[in-house]
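Tutorial handout. Part one gives the primary structure; part two gives the three-dimensional structure as tokens.
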Amino acid sequence: MIILVTILVAITLIVTNTNPVALARNNFFIFNSQASTSVSVASPAGMVMGASETGGKIGVQANAAAAGQASLTLPPPEDKPIAPVLKSVYRKAPEIAARAAVIIDVKSQKVLYQKDVNEQAALASITKLVTALVALKHQPDFDQEYVMQAEDRREGGRINLFWGDKITVKDLWYASLVGSDNTATIALVHALGFSEQEFVAQMNQQAQALGLRDTNFVDPVGLSTNNKSTAAEVAKIAGAALASEEIRQAVTQPRYVLKTKQGKTRVIESTDDLLGGAKSYQVLGGKTGSLGSAGLNFTGKFSQNGREIISVILGSNGVDARFADTDALVNWAYENYVWPK
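Part two.
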């Protein structure tokens, strides 16, 4: 019976010259399903951010192509980077002792990990990243010579330059960013022709230009506990600073050797311990900070197979701990998130 009906339908279609595809299209709605990842949600301090790597149907789209009816079309997707997502099975984020921390994906700006990201803390020498950004606005002549003055002297950390040393602006730049030299940083400000007060005003203007609301500067080196920011805003500072080729070249140097015009050689070692040793990721630059009871800080930019992230550690309880916490969080992020291809 079924065969007989099929033959009769076929004969009818042939005699009436009817297209069976058009017949179906003009009398039925065709539904298409779409897959999507679940929506990310806010996470408490110290927790993982984002959605699991799961897919599911989120609805249907009707192609209303019936006679005399316009077909439905969806608006084109917005041109936004696709954020990484947690693997469906992932390892818990490592416990860290630092007071605040954050990991963000550079391309999408998605937060991958956070701990007290909006709590203000002393910046210490991370300040020097903003000092460098402001200095670059004045297009410094790196070959310009400068003679160290008594008023350049600042205590704290290792001092590599002394009164009467004749060096170049390039030497001051590298001493500031490689060795975190406070005296060299003040000398850089003076070599550009500014007082500290004038320069700090420009630093706060730079912070405003970056959209930073909880960041404030009172000196160009970070010796004051009133140089404050948050982990979330330090990530923005690092993103802007480490996008600069001049800054990146300096902060990726494990050491810098300078020679004064008087013939004295000074070897300046980097304060960034992550620059040495084999790792599963590439270090694209970083900056340390240390200020007594305020604790030890570090922010860095990293890459693995082209996937770039920024990390911030504020208020760590030891020199080695800030680097160990950074390494643990960076490795965890790369191991437990999936980036779009």
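Part three, for discussion. Residues 21-44, 51-76 have pLDDT under 50 and may be disordered. The chain has nine helices and 16 strands.
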